[in-house]
Design the sequence.
């Protein structure tokens, strides 16, 4: 049975005080820095950010830059202790932001967004916890409980913050949409990257699913070559389909037009889901989408709410 989506967190946000006045040149530098991080990454989120108003776009750039910088800490070379120490610096920076004293360029950019859109501190902390899970790894065959906890941190937190910036956050259905879609995107991403993750000794496929399909090892290279891995991936793919459907059902309860950037990502990742299914969930078969395929999928979802299941 597919586990339920983690309950959306209802926050009593820790309001950040107005940050201490920064020279205008420093604020401009911080905004430019965040924008450059997004542009350099080539992220699929880029087009979705561009349809936002200037203030909301700058806020999303700041959130993305934060995610990119802490993700790089977890993924790049270095010892576990070095990575954990670097992440601890960000815990301090987040505390400083909520005290009105950011020091890093990305922190200054975030401070503006946090005050303007009343972004909850807990979500930034959850993101750091997710990076700690990777930095302390490598993650190999996590329990389903840990898998969902990981998704909530590295993807759900981004969704919760984004929905508030889009003006569509804060209500029960909006939060459930954010968490369900985050689980769908992250699970699809994990299924797409099984082979790539195995190269760095990571395996995010949940242990319970592996066991159900007769896979007793969690060594990434061994799982990649196991004849039953395709069926294990298919089961996790069915969970992703359920998450997409839950996100879709939530759209009827709020103004879906405010969530267009999220729908853009939904369109692209449901297209990835179908490509993975068409590849028989074989993790050794690379699945790629052309730029045109991504643009067409995104455009369809942004023009009308996808009320029907697009994974079939």
Sequence:
């Amino acid at each position: 049975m597919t586990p339920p989506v983690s309950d959306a967190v209802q926050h009593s946000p820790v309001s950040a005080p107005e940050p201490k006045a920064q020279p205008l040149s420093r604020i401009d530098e911080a905004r430019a820095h965040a924008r450059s991080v997004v542009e350099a990454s080539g992220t699929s989120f880029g087009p979705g950010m561009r349809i936002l108003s200037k203030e909301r776009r700058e806020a999303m750039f700041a959130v993305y830059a934060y995610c990119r910088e802490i993700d790089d800490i977890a993924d790049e070379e270095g010892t576990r202790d070095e990575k954990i120490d670097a992440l601890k610096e960000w815990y301090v920076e987040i505390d400083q932001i909520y005290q009105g004293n950011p020091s890093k360029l990305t922190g200054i950019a975030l401070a503006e967004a946090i005050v303007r859109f009343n972004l909850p501190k807990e979500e930034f902390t959850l993101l750091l916890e997710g990076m700690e899970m990777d930095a302390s790894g490598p993650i190999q065959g996590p329990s389903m409980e840990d898998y969902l906890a990981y998704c909530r941190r590295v993807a759900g937190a981004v969704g919760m913050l984004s929905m508030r910036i889009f003006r569509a956050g804060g209500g029960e259905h909006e939060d459930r949409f954010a968490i369900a879609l985050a689980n769908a995107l992250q699970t699809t991403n994990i299924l797409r990257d099984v082979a790539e993750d195995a190269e760095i000794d990571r395996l995010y496929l949940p242990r319970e699913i592996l066991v159900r399909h007769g896979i007793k090892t969690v060594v990434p290279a061994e799982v990649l070559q196991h004849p039953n891995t395709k069926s294990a991936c298919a089961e996790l793919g069915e969970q992703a389909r359920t998450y997409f459907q839950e996100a879709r059902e939530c759209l009827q309860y709020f103004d879906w037009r405010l969530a267009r950037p999220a729908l853009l990502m939904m369109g692209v990742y449901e297209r990835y889901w179908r490509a993975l299914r068409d590849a028989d969930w074989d993790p050794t078969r690379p699945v790629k989408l052309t730029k045109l395929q991504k643009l067409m999928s995104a455009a369809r979802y942004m023009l009308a709410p996808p009320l029907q299941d697009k994974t079939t």
In short: The chain has two domains: 17-120, 138-312. Residues 1-13 have pLDDT under 50 and may be disordered. Residues 54-75 form the longest helix (22 residues).
